[in-house]
What we know:
Layout: H1 3-28, H2 33-41, H3 49-68, H4 74-89, H5 91-95, H6 101-124, H7 129-159
Amino acid sequence: MNPSATALKKRIRILLVLFMIAMVVNGLTASPAETELTWLLNHPALVPGFMKEFLENILLGLQQTNSLYPQLAYGYDWLAFAHVIIAIAFIGPYRDPVKNIWIIEWGMISCILVPILAFIAAPIRQIPWYWTLLDCSFGVLGIIPLYFARKWTRRLESMA
């Protein structure tokens, strides 16, 4: 592999590792939702005023649900697991981006679908508009490294 191809592959790998880390961190924060919200609300300087009531209501719902129906929190565990599994899928393009570009493209499609789901489900679930925008940001921000990884993978492919 020529030096410019090697450098390009390194840049692709850096983006994929950053994306994978973000997926894992995002997922692992799902399971301890009650603990995280309690901590956050105990630090009022970190909570914008317009979000306080919404987050307190979510915490109350989590506390009541977890006390009466702790098995429902199992869904959060599976959500965390799914994020980790999605991150693991990107090992393929990390190892061989050209051969596994379809995984990068699948990730981009998934990022595009995030706002669609958010704008459909949020009103049904009574989620405030600002939280919907926060949820959409995961898709919007996630597509950026994947876009460049795909672009550079196409360039890498043309060098071969």
